[in-house]
Design brief:
Helix content: 40-55%
Number of helices: 12
Radius of gyration: 26 Å
Strand order of the largest sheet: 4-3-5-9-10
CATH architecture of the largest domain: 3-Layer(aba) Sandwich
Number of domains: 2
Length: about 350
């Protein structure tokens, strides 16, 4: 139905009634528009003001962190959307770093925040932790680096081969027993914004429901720093426990790097540019032999810590805080001795 101006309707009883209906519809339309606009402005203000991205969860009021790994019923990860679609400030922070570390959750647990920050203060060089929980392969990281032109002077890559090698084409996400293709790679950028916002709102709703039912609406999950990429893995009580078991290494594994892995690795290094040093976070199934072979084939340096005395939160997969301090201290002390480190920051030293 097309509404006509009042003056075209006429002046009879029917016309007066039509005129009244017209004015009523106009008032309703204007009121509705104002209401929707007000709600939209309020919603955007609430969802964006003081947040890294729409409705993101600060850590106990600290907006330098966002909730990354959560879900009271179904576990979900937020940083895949944020990095792959450049939502929020994480990609910008990674681009500003001098040294970027790549790898899976082994790296998240193995990098001690205090040791890293001490190094940054002493050296003036910023380290960014760009590891991803649940993602073993490095193809996801490579696509982010290429897509958003992250150009770190120095890369430290955890060259692990458990299940799949870091240098592979895999885009798998594994959470517990479930393996799927990384959701963020399946849709375009606007859908990434929407997906991140919906995830935050869902987590908030779950917290409200939990508080209503049990009185517990606490800051549930793992948070991640926007500026450094550090994850709050210390929320796991085993991380700071004193009675964690020492890792039992299988030193008899017969493992070798494959020509395919070497080929992928060569292209990977060409794509990301800069200087590269390999490392290997200790765990019960790791195999230094293949990592040494890979480093030799690529003509780059590798840092592998001694394989004894490391304790773990889960029987061999992830280091606890005590071992993270030890690993990070060893990594930093050896990294600054490498030729790659000197080449990366040669101009600054001159």
């Amino acid at each position: 139905m097309k509404l006509r101006p009042v003056e075209e309707i006429g002046t009879g009883p029917t016309a007066k009634m039509a005129s009244g209906i017209y004015r009523y519809l106009v008032v309703i339309a204007v009121s509705s528009t104002l209401l929707v606009s007000t709600c939209l402005v309020w919603g955007l203000s609430w969802g964006l003001k003081g947040h890294d991205h729409f409705a993101s969860y600060p850590l106990n009021g600290d907006i330098a962190f966002y909730r990354d790994f959560s879900g009271r019923t179904v576990p979900e990860i937020q940083d895949q959307e944020l990095f792959y679609h450049n939502v929020g400030g994480s990609v910008t922070a990674a681009k500003a770093a001098d040294i970027v570390v790549l790898g899976p959750s082994f790296v998240s647990y193995a990098l001690d925040k205090a040791v890293l920050r001490q190094f940054e203060t002493a050296s003036g060089r910023h380290i960014y932790n760009m590891s991803f929980i649940g993602i073993r392969g490095g193809e996801f990281s490579r696509r982010i680096i290429a897509r958003w032109k992250i150009r770190a002077p120095l890369w430290v890559i955890n060259a692990d081969d458990q299940f799949i090698h870091f240098f592979s084409r895999s885009l798998d996400l594994t959470l517990g027993p479930t393996t799927t293709r990384i959701p963020a790679t399946r849709h375009w950028r606007m859908a990434g914004y929407i997906s991140a916002a919906v995830r935050n709102l869902r987590w908030r709703a779950e917290d409200y429901i939990s508080y209503y039912r049990t009185g517990d609406g606490s800051a549930y999950g793992i948070y991640r720093s926007i500026a450094t990429g550090d994850a709050t893995v210390e929320v796991n009580p085993r991380y700071t426990a004193d009675d964690n078991k020492e890792i039992s290494f299988d030193r008899g594994r017969d493992c070798h790097v494959t020509p395919e892995t070497i080929g992928i690795a060569r292209q990977y290094l060409e794509d990301i540019g800069g200087q590269v040093v390999l490392t290997l976070v200790p765990h019960s199934q790791y195999c230094p032999a293949q990592a040494y072979e890979l480093a030799k084939a690529l003509g780059i340096e590798i840092i592998v810590p001694p394989d004894r005395g490391y304790t773990t939160i889960d029987g061999g997969g992830h280091l606890d805080q005590k071992s993270a301090k030890r690993f990070t201290s060893f990594l930093i002390s050896e990294l600054i001795k490498t030729d790659a480190y000197r080449r990366a920051f040669r101009k600054e030293a001159q």
